[in-house]
């Protein structure tokens, strides 16, 4: 039994840590979808840009400045992208906004490619969370333990914000019925901006945790976590925050179990097969609301 | 006033004529450099290109019977990606390259072989070690050793040095170089009575903890991971975080400062096979190392391309040799026409800084030994271990 635990604990720890990082990204997807019915394809790239912000700023600034500044700049980027690429298309068909999102995604990727020359950059060491820790018999980075706890705390705070503040109420109203909320005098643009700010903030925190664990930052590194976080959001029921978090943890842990079973080649295939499976059998996901179109 | 103006104008117009008078080139010959400057292999590709550029700095002209030709390098970025590589290769062909050098990474070389072949351009692989690069591509030559040889050397080393009986191999799924070298290693290791567990990971993987745990649980005494350097950095840092002390081995790709940076200050033991060792004491090699370092220190941009230090990578030495082999080929053909070069290429020989270069019937260099180096984690440098051949 002890042998079994010590052999398998690293998989579980890795899975929980990866799941937490997917969760922080997937909240951004799910909130934007809830409000705008838009899949924000640029979200994974904002996550990557946050990584590069940190790499470049930590080269010249001490950590206590570069860390908060990374978060502030990432939030500003998310806010800016919404204002420049999505807001002018508010009245346009949903498909146009989606194409605009894909455009932003490629623009950010290529900008990063241009600035960095496409080479992997080493992420700076963040004290405390970069340190190693021994859990029972497994040795791992501190960040592995910090990630799920921080994710839990942030999600709890977010749920409080949505359920108990005025802006949260406005968000709920907008996600229920965009047009009526507008008629009731809710400032739609403000609600949408706040949504993007929260999403980008979580992406920035997720990026700090992710790159502390996996220290190479390249322009395309966010593509895979971004896609998987999106699958997690769909799995949990897109639009639902607890759904996205639980979906992310399930995907992170299952991926590692699949690798532990020796089926390493299929670990990504599993994630995307799950997406197809969910879309066929329960399109609304685990916690999603049934999307009955009102006539 | 008008007269002075007229005089000035006449003199200005004459300037190009004067400039022409200074150089007496019979023409320009273009050599294409087909290397990645971005993507997973960008770091290595840049170092290989540096070798070619330095060689061009040392020998900027070539003398044929009808005069001295200026050698111009046409450098493209194949982005380490097999779907973008053909476009890069095509642009070299269209730019009238007489010959092509490259690429770092066998997969992109294989992807471009047909394009060079169709255009009749001789290509000289510098550090691409997969057999498929030259096999069935009569115009593709190479100056380094091959993976079946490298895999066998590594398998012998794993058994002799670490006394390993069980090995674990990790390769990037769908990458010809990784999977090929892992297969050759496995064959050789099993041939010597060892046991091997092999796994592959999909493109874009960042989390290697599960793979490393698999290796430990399989009881592996050595981990063989011939991946590109981006993944290598992840593997090393995660092995360090998980406290894994099983020796990690890899092929020529890992001979990069990326590996040194990742291993610095950790307890991870990394050994690699490579083509060239900086501390080689032979005259040609020492002269090259000295000259290259001076050139690098005089050009800050080039220093950045080399990873910010002046450690001489083996691929840089191969880049240098490749360029010199190309000049030999031009001299042997006594022409800058593609067809003439193709005719004489098989017979070209050259005494390079990485050893004697001559081609066999496949167009591969005849090589029978590899250098083995290990990381010195205290000061991020390579320690030369030994020269290993195969019995």
The helix fraction of chain A, in percent, is over 70%
Radius of gyration of chain A: 19 Å
Structural class of chain B: alpha/beta
Total helices of chain B: the number is 13
CATH architecture of chain A: Orthogonal Bundle
Strand content of chain A: under 5%
Quickly count the domains of chain A: 1
Shape assignment of chain A: globular
Number of strands of chain B: 15
Poorly predicted parts of chain B: none
Summarize the entry for a quick read.
The complex is a heterodimer of chains A (295) and B (391). Chain A is mostly helical and 295 residues long.
Would you write up a description of this structure?
- The complex is a heterodimer of chains A (295) and B (391).
- With 295 residues, chain A is mainly alpha-helical.
- Chain A has a single domain (11-281), classed as ABC transporter involved in vitamin B12 uptake, BtuC.
- Chain A has eleven helices and four strands, in the order H-H-H-H-E-E-E-H-H-H-H-E-H-H-H.
- Chain A has helices spanning 2-36, 43-58, 63-86, 94-116, 142-164, 166-176, 178-183, 188-213, 223-236, 241-260, 267-281; strands at residues 121-122, 132-135, 138-141, 216-217.
- In chain A, the strands form two sheets. Chain A has a two-stranded antiparallel ribbon with strand order 1-4. Chain A has a two-stranded antiparallel sheet with strand order 2-3.
- In chain A, helix 2 (43-58) runs antiparallel to helix 3 and helix 9 packs parallel to helix 11 (267-281).
- Chain A is globular and about 65 Å long.
- The model of chain A has no long low-confidence stretch (mean pLDDT 89).
- Chain B is an alpha/beta fold.
- Chain B folds into two domains: 25-145 and 282-359, Response regulator (Rossmann fold); 148-274 and 371-388, 3-Layer(aba) Sandwich (Rossmann fold).
- Chain B has 13 helices and 15 strands.
- Chain B has a seven-stranded mixed beta sheet, sandwiched between helices. A six-stranded mixed beta sheet of chain B has the order 2-3-1-4-5-6. In chain B, strands 12-13 form a two-stranded antiparallel sheet.
- In chain B, strand 2 (61-64) and strand 3 (67-77) form a beta hairpin.
- The model of chain B has no long low-confidence stretch (mean pLDDT 88).
């Amino acid at each position: 039994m002890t042998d079994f635990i010590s052999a398998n604990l690293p998989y579980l720890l890795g899975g929980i840590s990866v799941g937490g990082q997917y969760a922080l990204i997937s909240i951004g997807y799910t909130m934007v979808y809830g409000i705008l019915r838009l899949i924000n394809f640029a979200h994974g790239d904002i996550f990557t840009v946050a990584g590069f912000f940190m790499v470049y700023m930590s080269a010249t600034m001490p950590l206590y400045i570069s860390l908060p500044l990374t978060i502030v700049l990432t939030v500003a980027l998310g806010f800016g992208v919404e204002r420049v690429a999505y807001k002018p298309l508010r009245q346009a068909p949903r498909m146009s906004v989606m194409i605009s999102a894909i455009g932003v995604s490629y623009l950010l990727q290529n900008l990063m490619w241009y600035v960095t020359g496409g080479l992997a950059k080493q992420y700076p060491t963040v004290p405390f969370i970069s340190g190693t820790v021994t859990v029972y018999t497994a040795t791992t980075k501190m960040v592995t333990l910090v990630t799920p706890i921080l994710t839990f705390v942030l999600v709890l705070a977010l749920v409080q914000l949505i359920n108990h503040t005025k802006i949260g109420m406005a968000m709920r109203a907008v996600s229920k019925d965009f047009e009526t909320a507008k008629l009731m005098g809710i400032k739609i643009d403000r609600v949408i901006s706040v949504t993007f700010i929260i999403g980008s903030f979580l992406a920035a925190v997720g990026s700090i945790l992710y790159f502390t664990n996996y220290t190479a930052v390249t322009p395309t590194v966010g593509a895979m976590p971004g896609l998987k976080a999106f699958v997690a959001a769909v799995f949990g029921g897109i639009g639902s925050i607890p759904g996205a978090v639980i979906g992310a943890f399930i995907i992170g842990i299952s991926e590692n179990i699949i690798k532990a079973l020796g089926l390493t080649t299929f670990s990504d295939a599993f994630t995307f097969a799950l997406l197809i499976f969910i879309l066929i059998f329960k399109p609304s996901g685990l916690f999603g609301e049934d999307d009955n179109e009102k006539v | 006033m008008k007269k002075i103006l007229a005089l000035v104008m006449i003199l200005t117009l004459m300037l190009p004529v004067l400039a022409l008078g200074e150089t007496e080139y019979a023409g320009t010959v273009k050599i294409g450099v087909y290397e990645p400057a971005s993507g997973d292999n960008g770091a290595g590709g840049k170092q290989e290109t540096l070798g070619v550029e330095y060689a061009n700095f040392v020998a900027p002209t070539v003398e044929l019977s009808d005069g001295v030709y200026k050698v111009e390098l046409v450098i493209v970025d194949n982005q380490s990606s097999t779907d973008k590589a053909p476009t890069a290769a095509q642009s070299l062909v269209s730019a009238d390259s007489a010959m092509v050098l490259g690429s770092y990474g066998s997969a992109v070389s294989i992807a471009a072989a047909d394009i060079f072949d169709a255009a009749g351009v001789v290509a000289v692989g510098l550090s691409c070690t997969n057999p498929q690069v030259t096999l069935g591509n009569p115009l593709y030559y190479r100056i380094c050793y091959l993976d079946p040889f490298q895999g066998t050397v590594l398998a012998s080393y794993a058994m002799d040095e670490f006394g390993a009986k069980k090995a674990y191999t990790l390769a990037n799924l769908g990458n010809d170089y990784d999977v090929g070298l892992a297969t050759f290693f496995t064959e050789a290791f099993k041939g010597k009575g060892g046991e091997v567990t092999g796994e592959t990971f999909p493109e874009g993987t960042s989390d290697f903890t599960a793979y490393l745990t698999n290796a430990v649980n399989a009881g592996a005494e050595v981990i063989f991971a011939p991946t590109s350097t981006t993944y290598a950095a992840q593997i090393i840092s995660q092995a360090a975080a998980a406290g894994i002390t099983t020796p990690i081995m890899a092929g020529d790709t890992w001979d990069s400062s990326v590996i040194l940076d990742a291993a610095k200050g950790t307890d991870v033991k990394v050994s690699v096979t490579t083509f060239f060792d900086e501390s080689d004491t032979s005259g040609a090699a020492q002269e090259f190392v000295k000259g290259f370092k001076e050139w690098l220190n005089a050009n800050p941009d080039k220093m950045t391309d080399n990873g910010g230090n002046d450690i001489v990578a083996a691929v840089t030495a191969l880049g240098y040799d490749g360029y010199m082999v190309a000049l030999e080929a031009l001299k042997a053909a006594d022409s800058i026409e593609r067809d003439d070069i193709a005719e004489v290429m098989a017979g070209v020989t050259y005494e390079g800084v990485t050893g004697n270069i001559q081609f066999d019937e496949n167009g591969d260099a005849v090589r029978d030994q590899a250098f083995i180096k290990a990381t010195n984690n205290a000061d991020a440098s390579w320690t030369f271990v030994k020269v290993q051949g195969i019995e």
